[in-house]
Amino acid sequence: MADVQFHEVCGAQAAITNGGRVAERKAPESSFDKGIVFSKQPLKGRFEVRIRRKVAAWSGSIRIGVTSRSPESAAIANSSAALKGGTVILSDRDVIVDARTQQENYSSVSLKSVEVDGRVGVEIKDRALYFYINGKNQGKVETELRSQNCWAVVDLYGQCVEVEIVSSSALNVSESSSVVPEQRKVLPKGSPCQYQALVHRFFNTLVIPEIFVDSRYDCCYCIKCHAERGDLDYYNRGSPPALYAIPVGWCRLGLKLNPSAEANKVWDTHHRAYHGTAVDKIRPILDTGQLLFPGDVALGGSKISEGKGHFTDDWKPKGFNTKKIFLSPTIKYAGLEAYARKKEYVDKPTGKKYWVRVAFQVWIRAGSYDVGQSTMAGKNFDERILDQGIEWSTVERGATHFSGIVVKLEEQT
Questions:
Q1: Torsion of CA 392, 396, 398, 404, to 10 degrees
Q2: Is the CB of residue 405 less than 8 Å from the CB of residue 331?
Q3: Which of 18, 91, 270, 284 would disulfide-bridge 266, Cβ 3.0–4.6 Å?
Q4: 116-153 residue pLDDT tens
Q5: For 212, what's the count of Cα atoms within 13 Å in the CB-facing half-sphere?
Q6: What are phi and psi of 218, to 5 degrees?
């Protein structure tokens, strides 16, 4: 079956490239509209695009929908919100039918909040219309389609400049195929939420030199911030792709890439994992420049040792090698007490006491590590990542590169 493509008929400022798979709006700094594009084929299921580029010059963003008019016969307006002739558009959170708002606050997530590498989609199923944001079905649209023969409409509006077709049910992508590649990206700056501000106050007590820090990649994963961004809970990273979990409930402090990481383009080739550690080991590990094995002595004389509950040389199954770096693709495992030992933190502005746990978020070279089952007491640590593959380990020094430090603070009761 031929790949789904964009139609050559498009808005005055739109351009179709990459064999019909990519659409972009020309002169995005001076023009915010006239970027409507259509699918070349009528829809037979779900149609999705990934945002490849945005600008900060405007306030609106991507819009998506369907129209019963073929692109050749459509009167192309400057904005999809003005299209008629059996057209249904999702704009921000509202559903617009033939240029009239019909369903306000339809979606749980605003299209304005979808960042670069985020996905938006539309699907016709059983004569009903559904929209998707980052793989999540936003529910049935309360309108009847004028025709079952519809084309997808994507409006490169406002901040959204470039998109790429990433999937369609016409390409045999199943309903469960909601895990997509995730890319390192700079998040827009704004006032931190209360949780992120609390984490920053804690982080400042560690007195980490600025040379290590890259605050452009700070990110709060508290329940509220995670939901507002519309992010998925899991993503694929690297080549070949490997699944990892977003650290929901934690907060990331971005770290600078070292030259080796830049040279190896780790954000494209490496997998994402977590390495839990003790609070007082953060600075020695950063000073040393890499993760260390149990028994190693970090710069300054700090010795790395196994946490309580983890296998040691004196307590382990026969033949088990403890002298390696242990990681996990989920913070629900790497954040266990045996790895991320909790420490008390007193927040001076409020006087409240918290338990704090920390872990390094790292890139690890594909093929450098073994995948094994959990060696900790308990089971079903993560609802998506099975216990049989939840523990990663490597004997290669230099196979990992720092991406950030993730922090979780829990108020003492």
A1: 10
A2: no
A3: 270
A4: 878 899 998 888 899 999 878 899 998 888 777 899 99
A5: 21
A6: -65, 145
Q: What is the pLDDT of residues 165-192, one digit of tens each?
A: 874 433 222 333 334 455 555 555 567 8
Written in H, E and C, the secondary structure of the chain is CCCCCEEEEECCCEEEEHHHCEEEECCCCCCCCCCEEEECCCCCCEEEEEEEEECCCCCCCCEEEEECCCCCCCCCCCCHHHCCCCEEEEECCEEEECCEEEECCCCCCCHHHCCCCCEEEEEEECCEEEEEECCEEEEECCCCCCCCCCEEEEECCCCEEEEEEEEEHHHCCCCCCCCCECCCCCCCCCCCCHHHHHHHHHHHHCCCCHHHECHHHCEECCHHHHHHHCCCCEEEECCCCEEEECCCCCEEEEECCCHHHHHCCHHHHCEEEEEEECHHHHHHHHHHCCCCCCCCECCCCCECCCCCCCCECCECCCCCCCCCEEEECCHHHHCCCCCCCCEEEECCCCCCEEEEEEEEEEEECCCCCEEECCCCCCCCCCCCCCHHHCEEEECCCCCEEEEEEEEEEEECC
Q: What's the pLDDT tens digit per position in 204-250?
A: 999 999 999 999 899 999 999 988 888 888 888 888 888 899 999 99
Q: Which domains does the chain have, with CATH numbers?
A: 6-171 (2.60.120.920), 194-411 (no CATH)
Give the strands of the sheet with 325-327, arranged side by side.
325-327, 391-394, 370-372
Q: Return d(Cα 372, Cα 321) in angstroms, integer.
A: 12
Structure tokens at 248: 């929901």
Tokens of 264: 């190896």
Q: Is the dihedral of CA 321, 324, 330, 331 positive or negative?
A: positive
Q: Can you say whether the dihedral through the CA atoms of 91, 95, 97, 100 is positive or negative? A: negative
Contact between residue 26 and residue 16 where contact means Cβ atoms under 8 Å apart? no
The Cα 22–Cα 49 span in angstroms is 9
66: its two tokens? 């369907």
119: nearest Cα among 70, 168, 66: 168
